[in-house]
Structure formats: structure tokens, C-alpha cells
Write a structure and sequence with these properties.
The protein is α/β, with parallel strands linked by helices. The protein has 2 domains: 204 residues, 3-Layer(aba) Sandwich (Rossmann fold), CATH 3.40.50; 113 residues, no CATH class. Helix content is 43%, strand content 15%. Strands 3-2-1-4-5-7-11 form a 7-stranded parallel beta sheet, with helices on both faces. Strand 2, helix 2 and strand 3 form a beta-alpha-beta unit. It is globular and about 65 Å long. The model has no long low-confidence stretch (mean pLDDT 92).
């Protein structure tokens, strides 16, 4: 019996790129006819329906509506991208999969999306360098409750175990590049810097450099698809408490990124000079970038000593390197100019809600 997939956030940056890649697959166990996509608006639903995509509007906060959607669409696998840091939503989806598993007598899988920033010293991670093959679940359980990312990670593993659902956690880094989805095609952090720099006519950086984990959106989507293919082919995978996947392709200096952005913006006449200034205060940075004040320092200066193992072990092969990324700043600028403020990220709202 074919296993059906539900993709949340199909109109977003990463979710839309995943959907686009799925639709372009040829020799793959993933079949578009077995895919359901959740979207935010009727206009988006119509656009994808015209492309023969089964798209639905679904309030992920409505537990009964989520259960009905999972059961009526015979969903066995959920790839959760939308509002992934809100524990209640993850719980609704996993419990719905638990109900589906009882009906189908088969396996059910939940692929959750976390973020790498949770594993940085600036975000209270006390264990230093860490691999995704380490006992991350046990390490996260040792920390006090209250961090939205770690709370969501723990909840996913615990609820999935209780419901008999197999969980995997993809730990998402800073994602960049032009998405290929039908709607939103820009990321969160770099467009924040670009829009602010254009508005202020000057590029700012934090007083402390950082080397965050980074991945191009096409490589990010490729990992989710690889996991889906492995699941459908019944291939062995790290799962449950061992099912963490650091989706890091490379690291890069934020200061180098800011200088490259300044150069690209100056060439277009969008800033007054190709010089990068230091933010006068974290409060000003949070206000101008639109980032949560309590997390702005960690978001702007954390690196995180993470080492990806599991994704590469199952065959993930990112195509983008740090050098290629730093040479693509004109693409980042053009993407923001084309999309403008049409699509605002809900990532920071999700963090605050969680």
C-alpha cells in the first residue's frame, strides 16, 4: 500500500522548494499523487491545484481539523515545515499520525524541523562541540525547560514514542539562496540584513563575529527528499532519540557576509558606501532587523560547534560551498528586490509564540 505524505508550509521558502523538487522528480518512490500540501490562502490553493497538486487549507492549531485532515487523506508521513517551533502544533500532527497508525496498522513517520542555533553557547548550550550522532535527546533533557527549540525537540520525541510514531529531527541552519517554490522565495536572516541596510543606507554588523552553520535552500530541500525516499524504500535510518540530522553544508563568517553584501549593495547604489558599521546596540539591531530582542544577540553572534554526521552517512551531497555562497551576493540582493516585503517570515513569530 502506498504511503501518503503531508507537507506543511508548502507555500513557504523551504516547503515550497521541497514541493518544487518533488514535482521535478522522475525515478523516485515519491509520487506527487500521494502528496498533500497545506497552504495559508485559497489563492495559493488554487494556484497549486491548477498544477495538479493536492493542496488544502488547514489550521494547524485546530487539533480536530488536523486529525481529520490526516485521516481523510490517509497520511502516513508528515514533513513539518510550517510553525515547526510551536510544540502544540507538532503535538497535534503527531497525535493525528498516531490515530492514522491505528487505522492502517502500518508505520507512521514525523519529520520535524528544528534549528542549529539551539546548540550554541550563546543560546545556553553547555556541552560544547557536538555531533548529531551524540545522545542529543538526553543532553537536551538535562537542560532547564523554557527554550522553545529544545522544548519542541523533546516534545516531538516523547509524543512520537507515546503514539507509536517514528520521529526524525532535521536541525536547520541559516538557509540562503533563491527558493524555487511557487510563492515565497527568500529566507529570513539575510533578507532582514538587506532590507535594513537598504532602508538605513548603511550595512551593519555585530561587534562579535560568528561562523554559523549554513546551507543553500536547494541542498536543504534535497535532504528532506532524501529522508522521504529512504523511508519509502524502507532503508535503515537513525530515528527516534537517535534521529537527529544536522543539515549543515558549511560555515562562513558573518563579517565576511556583511562585507560582501555591502559591496553588492554599493555597486547598485543602494547604500552610501561599501563600509560596514558596527551596531551601536543590540536594542537597535533588534528594532531595525525585526528580530526578537531576547534572542538578537544569540541570532547575530552564535556559531555553534556542531558536526554533521547522519545526513552525510545516508548519502546527502550538498552542492553549495562557502566560496560559492560568498560569490552569490548579487543573487541575494536581487531576490530581495524582487520579492520586497510581499512575504514576511513567520519564524520569529513562531519563536515568540513558543
Amino acid at each position: 500500500m502506498a504511503q501518503h505524505i503531508l507537507l506543511t508550509g508548502g507555500g513557504g521558502y523551504i516547503g515550497g522548494t521541497i514541493l518544487d523538487q518533488i514535482l521535478s522528480l522522475t525515478n523516485s518512490p515519491i509520487k506527487p499523487k500521494n502528496l498533500t500540501v497545506t497552504l495559508r490562502s485559497e489563492q495559493q490553493i488554487k494556484a497549486l491545484s491548477d498544477m495538479s497538486v493536492h493542496a488544502i487549507a488547514l489550521d494547524l492549531n485546530d487539533e480536530e481539523a488536523v486529525k481529520e485532515a490526516v485521516l481523510s487523506n490517509n497520511v502516513d508521513i508528515i514533513v513539518h515545515i510550517a510553525s515547526a517551533l510551536e510544540p502544540a502544533i507538532a503535538s497535534h500532527l503527531i497525535k493525528a499520525l498516531g490515530e492514522r497508525r491505528k487505522v492502517s496498522n502500518g508505520e507512521a513517520y514525523f519529520i520535524h524541523s528544528s534549528v542549529t542555533a539551539a546548540f550554541s553557547k550563546e543560546n545556553g548550550w553547555p556541552f560544547g562541540e557536538v555531533k548529531d550522532t551524540d545522545t542529543l535527546y538526553d543532553m537536551e533533557k538535562q537542560l532547564p525547560a523554557g527554550h522553545p527549540v529544545r522544548d519542541a525537540d523533546i516534545l516531538v520525541t516523547d509524543v512520537a514514542r507515546a503514539e507509536g510514531v517514528i520521529s526524525l529531527i532535521v536541525v536547520v541552519p541559516v538557509v540562503y539562496g533563491m527558493g524555487s517554490g511557487e510563492f515565497r522565495r527568500t529566507s529570513s536572516s539575510i533578507p532582514s540584513f538587506l532590507r535594513t541596510s537598504i532602508a538605513d543606507q548603511v550595512v551593519h554588523r555585530f561587534d562579535k563575529d560568528a561562523h554559523p552553520a549554513m546551507t543553500h535552500v536547494s541542498d536543504m530541500a534535497a535532504l528532506y527528499i532524501l529522508l522521504l525516499e529512504k523511508i519509502l524504500n524502507k532503508a535503515p535510518l537513525p530515528m527516534g532519540e537517535k534521529g537527529y540530522y544536522f543539515a549543515m553544508a558549511h560555515k562562513v563568517s558573518w563579517w565576511d557576509v556583511m562585507q560582501k553584501l555591502a559591496d553588492a549593495l554599493y555597486r547598485r547604489g543602494l547604500v552610501n558606501e561599501a563600509k560596514v558599521e558596527i551596531w551601536p546596540s543590540d536594542e537597535m539591531a533588534a528594532q531595525h532587523l525585526g528580530w526578537p530582542r531576547q534572542f538578537v544577540r544569540a541570532m547575530g553572534t552564535s556559531s555553534g560547534d556542531i558536526i554533521p554526521v547522519n545526513a552525510f552517512k545516508i548519502g546527502w551531497q550538498p552542492k553549495w560551498t562557502a566560496e560559492r555562497f560568498l560569490g552569490s551576493m548579487d543573487v541575494e540582493v536581487q531576490a530581495v528586490l524582487e520579492q520586497g516585503d510581499k512575504f514576511q517570515s513567520t519564524l520569529y513569530d513562531s519563536i515568540l509564540n513558543a
